[in-house]
Amino acid sequence: MSASEAQVIARALFDSLTGTALQALRAAASVNGELTPERVLAALPEDAPREIRNLVMALGREGNLDRLPAVVTAFEQMTRRGGARPLTGEVISAVELNPQQRERITAQLTARYGPDLELRFSVDESLIGGLIIRIGDQVLDTSLRTRMAAIQRNMMTS
Question: What is its main location?
Answer without folding.
Answer: membrane
